[in-house]
Amino acid sequence: MSTLDPRYPVGKFAPKDTISQDERTALIRQIEEAPERLAQAVAGLTEIQLDTPYRDGGWTVRQVVHHLADSHMNAYIRFRLAVTEDNPTVKPYNEKRWSELIDSRTAPIDLSISIIEALHARWAMMLESFTSADFERRVQHPENGPMDVDRLLQLYAWHGRHHCAHVTELRRVKGW
Ligand code: NI
After folding, report:
1. Domain 42-174, CATH 1.20.120.450 — does that match?
2. Model pLDDT for residues 77-94, shown as the tens digit of each residue
3. What's this model's pTM, rounded to 2 decimal places?
4. Separation of CA 8 and ligand 1 centre (Å)
């Protein structure tokens, strides 16, 4: 695994086919702790720093924060669909275009920090209630095929760490 690729500061997503109950618990904890980690990662940044791309040609820190809210709202809905419908088809969205919308580019990050705090609190509460059978339920992704809840859990725990590390790596490189 390259640690030099600024796109993947925590490595690419590398899911396991099966995970233990202890691993589930640890991943749920990552979902629960993600808002606090993100708040710490962006703490004290100036407006100019927030509008700095995390890498050449990449999203700004502001866009990264708003993307996390957008992505995890979609994710939360996918988990809810997975346990309330049989084999539901989930809706992809164009994350690149979402990140070009005006609020993604310019809104105060506190708006999305607030969304993420509230969303993750409900998300973790839901996840903690899931049975082993719930974690085996599946959704159909039109582009990626079938995904079980264990896979989604691994994906979004990674996804939070992935984007948070974009911010912390930028701060490390810039000495902020
Ligand atoms: Ni993302």
Report:
1. yes
2. 999 999 999 999 999 999
3. 0.96
4. 11
